[in-house]
Structure formats: C-alpha cells, structure tokens
Amino acid sequence: KTVYGANVIVFEGILAFANKELLKLLDMKVFVDTDSDIRLVRRLQRDIMERGRDIVGVIKQYNKFVKPAFEQYIEPTVQVADIVVPRGGENFVALDLIVQHVHSQLEKVRAALASAHQGQPLPKTLSVLENTPQVRGMHTIIRNKDTTRDEFIFYSKRLMRLLIEHALSFLPLKSVTVETPQGTMYEGKRFHRQRITGVSILRAGETMEQALTAVCKDIRLGKILIQTNHDTGEPELPSLRLPKEISEDYVILMDSTV
After folding, report:
1. For site-directed labelling of 233, which of 68, 112, 123, 162 has its Cα 20 to 30 A away?
2. What is the architecture, at CATH level 2, of domain 133-254?
3. What confidence category does residue 233 fall into, taking pLDDT thresholds of 50, 70 and 90?
4. In CATH, what number does 20-115 get?
5. Are strands 235-241 and 220-228 parallel, antiparallel or unpaired?
6. The pTM is what?
7. Residues in domain Phosphoribulokinase/uridine kinase (predicted)?
C-alpha cells in the first residue's frame, strides 16, 4: 500500500476536454489524433467481429451519427490541447517526450515541497515539551557519547514518560464531582471518552509503548510500518495492524528520533 495518492492521474475520454472547470485542474492536456480511415477500420473490425453487426449497418451509423458527432464535439477540442499526438499510440517519440515532461514536472513539485517549510513559523498545533533543567539534564546524558547503554535506556525512558504525560494533557476532560474517603466532595476532571489507543510507527515508535502503558491502564496498541520504495523514493505501507473500532478512540501516534 502506498502512503500518499498517485503522483500522476490520467484522465481519459473522448469528451475529456468538454468540461471547462475540469480543464483548470489538468496540468497537461494531450489530444491523441488518428487518421479518419484508421478510425473507421477499427470500428468496422470491432462491430463486425466482436458485436456481430453487418457492414452496411456499421457504415450507416458511422456516417449518420459517429462522424458528425466527432466533427461537432470532439475535433474542436484540439484547440485547448497542449500537445497533439499524431498517429495515436504508435508515436513512440511523442510518448517519450510526454513521459520526460511528466518526470520533470514531478521533480519541480518535489523540490518545492522539500523547501516549502523553510523560513515558515512552526504550526500553532505543535506543542514542544518545556525545556526545564530536568529535561535538559536528561538530554545531556542521552546525547553524551560517553553515556553507557544502561544510562541511555534509563534516561530515555524517563524522558519518554514525561513526553507521554505532556501529550495526555491535551485530551479533552469533563468536570466531575466525586466523594473522597473522608466524605468530602471533590471537583475534578475525567476523560470525556474512556478509551485511548496508542499506535507506534515501527520500529522507533515501539520504544515509547512502555511509557504509554505505564500511565494508561489497559490501553490498546497498534503498529504501523512505513518503508521507502527504493525505486520510486515514495513511502509505502507494508504493514498496518490497528485495533478494531479505532475511529472513535483518542489515538496517540508514537515515533521517536534521537
């Protein structure tokens, strides 16, 4: 499975250029032209051999309906085409030029997307864990090349737990009143919905699962594996294991990079 949609969408049809609103969405408009004699021969072969019609009826329909409709509705649309390909699909030179143009346009789009974030402010929906002395101290230990493996794991888990607690603070809460063991009433908060699901992006995201299960009782877990296709450079989704009925849950998506 691919993560994103198709890079190229081919919209094809004899009336593909008829809708003006649709024309505005097309990056490249190609009119495939074929000699009228060849078009007639193809119709004769199809209607006689595949549909069992007689030659007289086919020619009569062609002259009375097909040819006039082509001249009135289809042929004029050649004026809006960016490229006209004579000789149809047998024109391999024209096909190669179209493919090269599509590749060059995709490279321009990728370059634009790669640099689109530069100089832009961080989104308002992004929340960064406060850089307290405690957090900075753990970062110092984690980033130190002389830190032992056990220390690295210990302080990474501490930092991930703080991050999970920070993420949970954004879940919607509703006001509730409970009675304490001493008999007094306490105005508190409770999750608006009871179920939270954690989804880790393999494999780094799995390191955060322990921190999540430590603070969320009986939480359900799912996993997503995303890999890059070496031929296309696009991300693919070879594995997706999610709990049932996850659409109504609050989902914490976990991925970590040091």
Report:
1. 123
2. 3-Layer(aba) Sandwich (3.40)
3. confident
4. 3.40.50.300
5. antiparallel
6. 0.60
7. 2-93
